[in-house]
């Protein structure tokens, strides 16, 4: 895995453990030689993640729509800042630049982004693995709700089993790598 797209909050949240997690993930990815692709923000968990990766000498690619840059929300001190025209384009660029996707603590935007790339994988539009870093059990209630969808017949058990979930970064990276090794590539090369 050369690059990992990370979706997470542009705010700090209430629990300082989330900021510590973002800092740990950014630094650890850099030390492992895994490039970071993220939403390009300078605030909240996004900013902490990018700062930590940059301080550890990592590659950091931020992707942000022009309108958000005009509001001065971008962290410009990154390896590369990709400016796009819309949120839709932002997600497409992030998906193109990454080999896998992970959700850290966040809200609606984080959920929307991770669910979109997960549904793309399920539809065969790409073969890149998707996961949730469930540190401190943050995503446990959501994973429980997803099991309810499977029980109700709205989410295939195989789709849910394909989702990588781990309480720590090493375990999650291992699960993502395992899915990369076994995943057939779509015919269109996405």
Automatic annotation (TrEMBL):
<dbReference type="Pfam" id="PF03641">
    <property type="entry name" value="Lysine_decarbox"/>
</dbReference>
<keyword id="KW-0203">Cytokinin biosynthesis</keyword>
<protein>
    <recommendedName>
        <fullName>Cytokinin riboside 5'-monophosphate phosphoribohydrolase</fullName>
        <ecNumber>3.2.2.n1</ecNumber>
    </recommendedName>
</protein>
<comment type="similarity">
    <text>Belongs to the LOG family.</text>
</comment>
<dbReference type="InterPro" id="IPR005269">
    <property type="entry name" value="LOG"/>
</dbReference>
<dbReference type="InterPro" id="IPR031100">
    <property type="entry name" value="LOG_fam"/>
</dbReference>
<keyword id="KW-0378">Hydrolase</keyword>
